[in-house]
Each structure stands twice: as C-alpha cells, then as structure tokens.
Amino acid sequence: MTNMAKKQNDNIDNDNLNDILGDNVIADSEPKKENKPLSILITALIILIWLGIFVALIKLDVGGFGSKVLTPVLKDVPVINKILPKSANKTSDEDIPYKSIAECAAYIKELESELAGYQQSENDKDTQIADLQAEVDRLKQFEDNQAEFEKLKAQFYEEVVFGDKAIDPSNYIKYYQSIDKENADLLYQRAIEKYAYDEQVKERAKYYSSMKPAKAAQIFCEMTGDLDIVVSLLNSMNADESGAIIAAISDIDSVFAAKVTKKLMP
User: Is residue 226 a contact partner of residue 193, using CB atoms and an 8 Å limit?
Assistant: First the structure.
C-alpha cells in the first residue's frame, strides 16, 4: 500500500511538472509565431527602400549610370525602361533620328553620293587647272615664237639691205622709191600677216599631228566648211602623219576624205 501511494504521488508530481513545462513551452512558442510575419514585413520594407534608392539613382542619372550604362541595355524593354532618365531617352532619339535601318542606310547612300560628287568636282577642277596650264604653256610658246620672229625679221632686214649678198643699197632705194608708199605698206603688211599665219598653221599642225590619227580625223570631220584650213594643216605635216589622219578621215567620211586628198594635190 505504501508503495502504491508513493507511485501515485510520483505520478501526480510528474503530471504537475508536465503541465507547468507545457504551459511554458506554449508561452514561449506563441511569441515566435507572432514575430515571423513582422520580420518578413520589415525585410520586405528594407528591400523596397533599397530598390527605391536604386531607382532614384537611375532616374536622377547619378554618375551617368542611368544614361550611359543602363539606357543602351534597357531602353527597348517595356515598363522597365520607365525608370530610365528622360534626358537619356531624349538624347538617344536626337542622336539617332531614324525610325528604321532602311532610313539610315538610305541616308548613308546619300552621303556617299554627295562625297562622290565632291570628289568628281575636285577631279574636274584638277583637269581644268591642267588644261589651263597647258594653254598657258602653249601661249607662252607662241610668245617665244613671236619674239624669235621679231629677231629673225630684224636679221632679214639687215641681210636684205646691208648683207654681203644684198643688192646695192642704191638699187634698193630705187626699188623702194619706185613703189608708192601706200602699196609698199600694203605689201609689207600682207607679207607679215602671211608669215604669221604660216607660223600659226605650222604650230597647230604640230598639235594635231601629236594626237592619235582617229582623234585628229574626228576634229577635221567637224570642219567640213573649212576645207582650206584642214588642207593647210595637213600640208604642214610630214607625209606619214598626214597620211594616217586622211586614212582615219576616210573611215569616218569617205567623201570628205576624197575632197581633202584632191585639194592636197599639187
């Protein structure tokens, strides 16, 4: 009996202990269950704050992070691109004023065409300068020829009147006096003009003979109304040069070639 009473007392004590411990465990666990949602809320709030700060930094374009780093990556992403700085979007649109690659390619073609036009204009200017320089050189040669002509004319007068083989000055005086001054001046002027014309023809003949025969023939065929000039030019060339040009003229206009040949006959 004594043992049974003792066991009952022990059981009662254990039940009381369990009740006490159980109440404490329940008491301790209830605050933890109440604190968990609060912790989640605080964590979410902190994350939102940091996200807000991050968005503000992007929107304000601090250090150019929004316009230089994120804009090229996110500018075409819907919704997200709203956080980008407005200045970055505006600058981007101004820098690329084309709605499609086709428009951009067309503008590039236009620029290439303009550049080619400028290059062609520059080439034309160079060609024009070269032509003008060639004309200056040609005129300079005429000037030199004129100076040489004046020198030869003076020598001619000297030899005709006072040279070793010259006629007696008295005879020359008589001959000059036998012609009235008006006729003498006229004959002198005609002689000078003919000499100058012959020199010009010879110089021009050199110019045409230096061309390719086909090119010279094409020019001569445009001078069908100036047959005498064409004949004079050909007469001032050697036989090989004039023959090659006449053959080329015949390929273009056989009738004109026949007229030229007939005129060249002595």
Answer: no
